[in-house]
Amino acid sequence: MISQLKGLCSGDANPDAWFPTVPNGGKYETNLRRMVPEIKYAINMCGRCPIREDCLEEGMKPENLAYGIWGGLLAGQRIAIAKREGHDYRVDPYNKGRQVLSRYTDNVGPSRKVTSDEEEAATMFANRIRPYLEV
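RESULT FIELD:
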């Protein structure tokens, strides 16, 4: 549960820093290097944030797991934790359209869990950006 306190990211002039996405076009590695300052900024802000633990808990929820920086961790890092801890965060691997049938109704709607494509993209991004963040 998110605390009543606001995070340091709340109202920040650059909210996109917490939701990095690699731009289309150009060389992938060049685009990664261009993103490093904003990602470092966001992670450093998280490190000083009074609600970091609550934020990370929120970021570990399946609906938030594949995107953004929550509690100072990239999506791929949080997915690795979820996998290691045995969380139920994945959509059925054969269900690429993220449609799920509710157990007690006939309603079909979008899943709030992570697809295999989202998991792969988040993990690849975290692994590729990590060396640039350690410099």
